[in-house]
Design goal:
mainly alpha; 2 domains; two-stranded antiparallel sheet; about 50% helix
């Protein structure tokens, strides 16, 4: 402004102010357009397609004894033990012979053991899992 002649300063000041208003308006428009663009992008990203099949809510819950068993197993695993689980139907060998239960033992009778066809029986004790675990680990 110092270089502009005194009689032209008013007109020059108005000219500078009009340019300043145009620049300010252009910046405000660009800012508004950017905000609208960002809002549209967020809406597009978060849009749900209601024609897609939904996810079914999980039904039911674990039984309290199952939860307790899992917590106890976690404690033993944290102490360095391993959890062994195996089949529920066993052969006579793993159910009795490998455990040194003789042929005439009362545990082999049909009232104490549930037999299936082909010489299989429901596991009558947890020791059958121990036999298989020892075989797996070479003990």
């Amino acid at each position: 402004m110092g270089r502009v002649e005194a009689q032209n300063r008013g007109a020059f000041g108005q000219f500078v102010q009009s340019i300043e208003r145009e620049i300010t308006t252009a910046i405000e428009e660009a800012e508004s357009n950017l905000k609208n663009f960002i809002a549209d992008a967020i809406i597009e990203r978060e849009r749900l397609d209601v024609t897609l099949p939904g996810t079914r809510p999980r039904e039911g819950h674990l039984h309290l004894l199952t939860i307790l068993r899992q917590k106890i197993e976690d404690i033993f695993v944290s102490m360095g033990y391993s959890i062994e689980d195996d089949r529920e139907i066993e052969t006579d060998y793993y159910n009795f012979d490998a455990l040194n239960i003789p042929e005439g033992h009362p545990a082999r009778e049909s009232q104490d053991t549930f037999y299936t066809t082909n010489g299989f029986a429901l596991r009558s004790q947890t020791s059958t899992v121990q036999i298989r675990a020892m075989e797996r680990h070479g003990v």
